[in-house]
Amino acid sequence: MFKLARPKPIFHPAAEPANAHAVLLLHGFTGSPLDLKKLTNFLKSQGFACYVPIYSGHGLGAEAIVKTSMAAWWQDAHNAFDFLHSHGYGKISVVGHSMGGVFALRLAQQYALASVTTLCSPIMKRPVDYLKRRLISYAEEYKKFEQKPALHIAEEVAQFAKSDFSLLQGLSDFTETTGQHLAKTECPVQVLQGELDDACYQDSAALIYDQVGSTVKEIKAYPNSGHMLMLEADHQKVFRDIAGFLKSVK
């Protein structure tokens, strides 16, 4: 048994921020910057400045997540945008995976972003029970990575299942509210979706594409990938498509 180190934020600055195109990359619920590391390195190689924050409670196991809140995660995403802006970047695009894509769309509803790219992002209200099951499953998988004995894992997961999961209502509500204001998203939008992902995410991709107020938008599906689009079979094509879209933004 060993304790996993918490992933750290990633920042690849530009030599001249005022003349650079910065990309804020936002991970998903229960995720971390590690999920976006390969994509970040690729975008860095293409000349983009990149910043990947980590949300409160994330990267430390499910028990740490339930001690935080949806408001804290959104504030972390907002602070990350402010971080880039305060460092002199005027042209900022946001690439978000899953919940990170919801944050990207909400930022676009509030600020003049260069563009938004969503990867397998939900946009419809999701049942809290579904989110609870997902968080419990994450708790079990994290403990396996820690190489805890099976009996200990079963006992700890059973205890975790009794936790207060009220924060998940905040996540569901935030997603629904963002979806109700998609028409306010007027910057260029790219919607990317794995065809092997759950139907709710595929439906959300179509809804985002149809309802954003952007005049420049595209939607692409990848037949050999599921929810972790940036890590699965089609990831190289996904990376090229994201870079190409970012370069097309004026």
- SSE string, helix = H, strand = E? EEHEHHEHEHHHEHEH
Biggest sheet architecture: 7 strands, mixed
CATH homologous superfamily descriptor:
Alpha/Beta hydrolase fold, catalytic domain
CATH class division: Alpha Beta
GO cellular component, one term: membrane
InterPro entries: AB_hydrolase_fold, AB_hydrolase_sf, Esterase_lipase, Hydrolase_4
Binding site for substrate: 29, 99
GO molecular function: carboxylic ester hydrolase activity
Describe the structure.
With 250 residues, the chain is of the alpha/beta class. The protein has a single domain (10-124, 174-248), classed as 3-Layer(aba) Sandwich (Rossmann fold), CATH 3.40.50.1820. The protein has nine helices and seven strands. The protein has helices at 37-45, 62-65, 70-86, 99-110, 128-145, 150-160, 167-180, 199-211, 235-248, and strands at 10-12, 21-26, 49-52, 91-97, 115-119, 189-194, 217-222. A seven-stranded mixed sheet has the order 1-3-2-4-5-6-7, with helices on both faces. Helix 1 (37-45) links the parallel strand 2 and strand 3. It starts with 9 loop residues before the first strand and ends with a helix. The model has no long low-confidence stretch (mean pLDDT 95).
